[in-house]
Amino acid sequence: MCELILKFEPSEGISPGCAGFHDGAKIGLIQLIVCYSSNEQGDLLLAVKWDLRELIIWLIDNSRAISEEAIPECVRWNGSIFGSIEKFYDEVDIDQDEMIDRVFEYRRRHEICFGLRGLTVPSIYIGRGENGGEVSGEIDGRRFAFSIDIASFYSRFQTQFNIGGE
After folding, report:
1. What is the pLDDT of residues 74-130, one digit of tens each?
2. Does 166 fall in a domain?
3. Taking each helix axis from N to C terminus, what angle separates 97-110 and 81-91, rounded to the nearest 10 degrees?
C-alpha cells in the first residue's frame, strides 16, 4: 500500500488580491505525491500554484464520500476508478440523463479538479476502489492506480494543516 501525501510551499511576497484571489487565500505550490515507502521520494501526481484553502475545503467537505463511497452501480468496474469512469463515458447512451447525473455527482466528490476550480489539471480520483482506498488517473497519457490508506492520508493532512476532525 502506498502513502498519498499533500505538500504545500507558500509563495513569498505575493499578495493574494494582486494575484486574483481573495485576501485570505493561501497561495503556493500544491503537490500531490504517492510514495511506495516512507524513505522514497515518490511519484509526483500533481503540482500547481493555487489557493490551498480551496483544496482543503473540498477535501474536508468530501471526506466521508472519499472514504466510504463506491463508484455508482451504473458504472462497471474497469481496473480502477479512473478507468471505470472513462469507460462509462465511452459507452453511455447520451439519453441516459439520470445515470450521467449520478456519475457527474460522484466525480464532483472524488475528482481533484473540483477542488481546484479555475485550473486545468490531470484527471485524478481519490476514493474507494474495488480493493480499498485508491488514487488513480492519467497524466500525460500514462495511466496509474495506487492502493492507498485514505484514513492515513486524512490523518496526516489534518495534522499537517492543523484541521480538526469531523
Report:
1. 999 999 999 999 999 999 988 889 999 999 999 999 999 999 998 999 999 999 999
2. no
3. 160
